[in-house]
Each structure stands twice: as C-alpha cells, then as structure tokens.
Amino acid sequence: MATGQAESRAELARLSGLAPSSVSLRVEQLIEAGLFAEEGAGASRGGRRPRRLRLARQAGAFLVADLGAHHARLSVVDLAGAPLALDELACDIAVGPEETLTAVIASLRSLAHAHGLRDVPVRGVGIGLPGPVDPATGQVVSPSRMPGWNDFPVRDFVADHAGVPALIENDANLMAVGEHRHSWPALDNLMVVKLGRGIGCGVIVDGRLHRGRGAAGDISHVRILSEATVDCSCGHPDCLEAHASGAALAAALGAHGIEVERPAQIVDLVTDGVPQATSAVRTAGRLIGDVLTGLVNFFNPDALVIGGSLSEAETLVSTIRGVIYERCLPLATRNLEIATSRAGRDACILGAGHLLLDRSDAWIDHILDR
C-alpha cells in the first residue's frame, strides 16, 4: 500500500501470493485497527470494480534520528517513508548511550508535537549510529569513536523508552538504502560511501542491503600505505579513517594552525582555495580511491555514490574518481557511474523510513496484539 504497488485486496493477493480470503481477513483487521481505509472504487479488470484501499491519514508515523558525533538529524516520517518534519539536535555522542538516546527520543516527540502530529500514533522508531551494529541484537559492537556504547542494548533501550518497535542501523547502511530507494531504484548493485567526520560504506546487492553479520561495507579500518604512521582510534596503525576522514583532515589542518570544528568547514576552505586544505583533501582522495579501487574490481557495482558532508568538496570527489578510473579494470568501470549523493542530508532519514516500512510485520503485529 505504502509503495503504491497495490490499491485493492485483489492486487495485494496477487503481489503477496497469499489466498484472497487470507488477504481479505488481514485487511479487515487493519481497517478495524485504523491503519487502512476504503475509498471509492478502483478500475475494473473485467468483473466488479474493487474497493480502493489506502493508508488511513491518521494511521501513524515513524520517528527517525540520524546520529553523528556532535549532532543528530531528526525527522517524523509517514508510513510511506516520506519526511513530515525535520530538525537538528546538538548532542555529544561521547556522553554515553542512555543520556544521548533519552534526549533524542524526547526531542523526536517534541518535533512531532510542534508540527501538529501529537495525535498521530507512533508506529516505530529508527536510529542511525556512526558505528558497527549487530543486526541480530541491535547492539553497537566495538565502536572506535563512541565511548561507553560497546555492547549497549540500543534496540531494547529505544523500544522500552518509546513503547514501539525499534530499528537500529549503521548510518552508512541507512544512507545506502535511502540513496537506492530514492535515487537509484532501477539499479541492483550499489556502493554508497559516506565521508564526514568518519568514513563508512553501505552495500546494496541485488536490490537489498547487504549487512553480512554487521560489518559489511566497513572500509574505515582498511590499512593503507603511508609515509607517516598514524594510530587509529581503533588501536591499529594506518587505517584509512586515521588518514582520510574529516577528523583526520581537521587534525592535519590544525598542525598548520588552521582550526576546524566540522567537516563542512573543510569544504569551505577548499572552496576558498586555501592551499593546505586543498592539498590535504587531494591526499585523502587518493587514499580513499586506492581502497575503493580494490572494492570496485571485486564487487563490480552499477554505481558508486559518494555522500556525507565532505562529498561537497569537488576536489575530493574528482580525485577519488580519477584514481578509480585509472587503476580499475576497464570492464569494472566501463558502465560504472560515480556520482555524489542525490538524496543529500536526508538520505539516512529516507533509508530508515524505508527499512521501517519493510519491517511492517513487526509494528503491525504490535498494534493488532494490543
């Protein structure tokens, strides 16, 4: 219903492969629960015109947050995954999970109330985190930049405090889903790289998010070759993130007396032609390109999408693109499209909305069991 692929019981039965009687029974339950509504008659296919179904306008909404190191992007999205309200929250993820998540949940509810959605029931909460997430447990596992979060039961904590099913996912994975569903739905295989304070990558295989056991796509701790050794926050030397992330670039510029607090400021410095910033970004682009070269050869995706705040630095993107086209096999790049994000800052929000919709069985059963 939410995706627009069906608007009647017969079409739902055809798409699901279930018996029409089973679909009709389920639809009646959803109508009684206030999730579906009937309106008018649909087009006839030779018999009686079917009654059209739609999501009830007051059926509910999802609360979604994309957490970074020092801020969170907040949104209320409808049951089709489209944002109804957006906001930003200043927060420090280093204060720990309980304080951060409590503040985020409270701010999400305030956002809904402020936009006249107080009476719309919350059906699920989605949280994107800048660290590895175990998909089986909803726990963060050995994050390098999230002190106090290791093995914390994020999914259980959010579900208990919000009173609804919770989705916990790595932010790069959410970006990959958001980009794919919003901007590249016709493509089956994508790599979506998030370049901000850290480095992440989400992978779409055969049209679906590939998580592995939770670490799929984590390119941030791939070891690179460098003249100077730099220890990474994970405890190992010369990880890609230690040399090419927004945090690493800020540290490099700080050594030149140029203070940077946010990755967006690095983009501004490059745009203004500050030579130290341009040089640092080009070096980072070559290192990122070297890592992505092996992955493009290995995975052979249809498109490589570069997002995150640093993706607005054209020098960085062009350097990455140049390395990949120079170093990859011709067959790997012949039809490869390398592009910057089309979904922009809301890619993670869109991805969370779609994944919550994909898990509709969880929150629908939660409603019907009440």
- Overall strand count: 14
Helix content: 40-55%
CATH architecture of the largest domain: 2-Layer Sandwich
The level-1 CATH class of the largest domain? Alpha Beta
Secondary-structure-based class equals: alpha/beta
User: Would you identify the CATH H-level superfamily of the largest domain?
Assistant: ATPase, nucleotide binding domain
Mean of all residue-level pLDDT scores: 91
Q: List low-pLDDT spans.
A: none
Could you characterize what this model shows?
The protein has 370 residues and is α/β, with parallel strands linked by helices. It folds into three domains: 9-55, no CATH class; 61-175 and 347-368, Nucleotidyltransferase, domain 5 (2-Layer Sandwich), CATH 3.30.420.40; 185-341, 2-Layer Sandwich (Nucleotidyltransferase, domain 5). 40% of the residues lie in helices and 20% in strands. The chain contains 13 helices and 14 strands. The protein has helices at residues 9-16, 20-32, 97-114, 154-162, 171-183, 240-244, 246-254, 263-271, 275-299, 314-327, 330-333, 347-358, 360-368, and strands spanning 36-41, 51-55, 61-67, 71-78, 83-90, 122-129, 133-134, 139-140, 166-170, 190-195, 199-205, 208-209, 303-307, 337-340. A five-stranded mixed beta sheet has the order 5-4-3-6-9, with helices on both faces. The protein has a five-stranded mixed beta sheet with strand order 12-11-10-13-14. It has a two-stranded antiparallel ribbon with strand order 1-2. Helix 3 runs parallel beside helix 4 and helix 8 crosses helix 9.
